[in-house]
Write a structure and sequence with these properties.
433 residues; mainly alpha; two-stranded antiparallel sheet; 18 helices; 2 strands; globular
Length: 433
């Protein structure tokens, strides 16, 4: 379907600018979480606290998305996706800069909560990206956008380690906050569009009507909630399986993001070489994103999901074993493989949602997926660090990361079987007619 600007001109080429905006926010958001993971040993020493407390604090950045993502979805309906993304990115940047001025780990936790507003912005722009493209082009546009994750994983850990060595952790957070202000560009690129001017006017009138009804009659509140948050999506089996996958993949990914560098340092690897392992994972992720369109020609989205989840889970589980035998060299391969598996796996999950959800609900579909991502992130940040404090080793933590990642695709075969049964019944009835 052709996308028409509010002025009436076609914006087919501009859709790729939205993909560029998504790329920018992916670089900064992923790099931010990984940067805080690099600073974990320094922050733990600075505030003389336990590993799980600092890990939980860092996980609050993606974790607050459980609140900010639905809020962003509602605000984008009431106002616009453009202004919502810009506002959330500004709040996030101010929060990160404020974190450089704190005097306790609890104050830094509050700063991390505000920093996490960027997750709400990422959810909105990811959903808007799906609206700008058809199913075929979306796989390419999303693959390009998510190379931002790869770049963030590759560059930001080394940059953060350098900034910490030169300016200390406070100076590093201050400069990272200034860098994070560039995420506002992502919102600027979301210029307001609709399919036609008439449809835009109609959507606005419906929004005002629903809001007015909700304000004048409290009994209309459930209807208003369903409108702004698309709560009926939570009854959709496709969305529910994506939510389960998002929780499990977030648990493994954020646990790996936060604790890979501390884990490597714990085995005797120098901080710079430990940070380079994250960069190696980023290179693997870049290759995974680049090969997704090729994999999609040979395999279904579901098969890509199963394959990448299995090899990613295996790479996490063998990390402790390989590190004990050959230290740095032993961690290079699993870091690369996990980074690679993360790319096609997430892209396939997004593609499943894009191909099976109505277009007018796709933005809020992504907000709920990011809510699930936030839940998995907070759980991993706390639980993985707590296990380390109890055992004095990251071995059990990484084994659980691999197990949870594997379980994240557990419900998918049942939904696939149900969809196949529905299709076979449809074709049988068609042939009888």
């Amino acid at each position: 379907m052709e996308i028409v600007a509010m002025s009436g001109e076609t914006t087919d080429s501009w859709a790729w600018m939205v993909s560029l905006g998504t790329f920018i926010i992916m670089v900064l958001e992923t790099g931010l979480i990984k940067s805080l993971g690099v600073l974990l040993p320094v922050l733990q020493q600075q505030f003389t606290t336990k590993t799980w407390i600092v890990g939980l604090m860092i996980s609050l950045v993606p974790g607050i998305g459980a609140v900010t993502c639905p809020l962003a979805g509602a605000l984008s309906k009431q106002f616009s996706a453009r202004w919502t993304v810009m506002m959330f990115c500004i709040i996030s940047s101010v929060g990160l800069i404020a974190g450089s001025l704190v005097s306790s780990v609890y104050m830094l936790s509050i700063a991390c909560l505000f920093t996490g507003f960027v997750i709400g912005a990422e959810a909105i722009i990811s959903g808007e990206l799906a609206r700008y493209f058809d199913d075929k082009d979306f796989s390419k546009a999303n693959a390009f956008a998510r190379t931002g994750v790869s770049i963030g994983m590759t560059i930001m850990p080394l940059l953060t380690q350098f900034l910490n060595d030169v300016y200390g952790w406070r100076g590093a957070l201050l400069l990272l906050g200034a860098l994070n202000f560039h995420s506002v560009i992502s919102g600027v690129l979301l210029r307001p569009i609709s399919y036609t001017q008439q449809d835009a006017d109609q959507d606005y009138e419906e929004s005002v009507s629903v809001t007015a009804e909700g304000n004048t009659n409290k009994q209309q509140l459930p209807r208003t909630m369903f409108y702004y948050f698309d709560l009926e999506l939570l009854y959709n089996p496709i969305v529910l399986t994506r939510i389960v996958y998002s929780i499990g993949s977030a648990y493994s990914f954020i646990g790996w993001m936060i604790y890979l560098v501390p884990f490597a340092i714990d085995t005797g690897i120098s901080p710079y070489r430990a940070a380079s392992l994250a960069a190696i994972g980023g290179i693997g992720n870049l290759l995974g994103n680049a090969t997704f369109p090729l994999l999609k020609k040979k395999l279904s989205n579901e098969h890509i999901l199963y394959m990448t989840t299995f090899i990613g889970s295996l790479s996490l589980a063998v990390c402790p074993l390989l590190s004990s035998t050959s230290s740095y060299t032993g961690l290079i391969v699993p870091s690369f493989i996990f980074g690679y598996s993360r790319g096609p796996g997430i892209l396939a999950s997004h593609q499943i949602a894009k191909e099976n959800i109505e277009e007018d609900k796709i933005t809020n579909t992504f907000t709920w997926l990011f809510v699930a991502f936030s839940i998995g992130s907070v759980t991993s940040g706390f639980f993985s660090g707590w296990i380390y404090d109890q055992t004095g080793s990251y071995t059990v933590s990484f084994l659980i990361l691999g197990l949870v990642a594997l379980l994240s695709v557990g419900p998918q075969p049942f939904v696939d079987s149900k969809r196949l049964q529905t299709k076979s019944q449809y074709f049988r009835l068609s042939s009888e007619k």
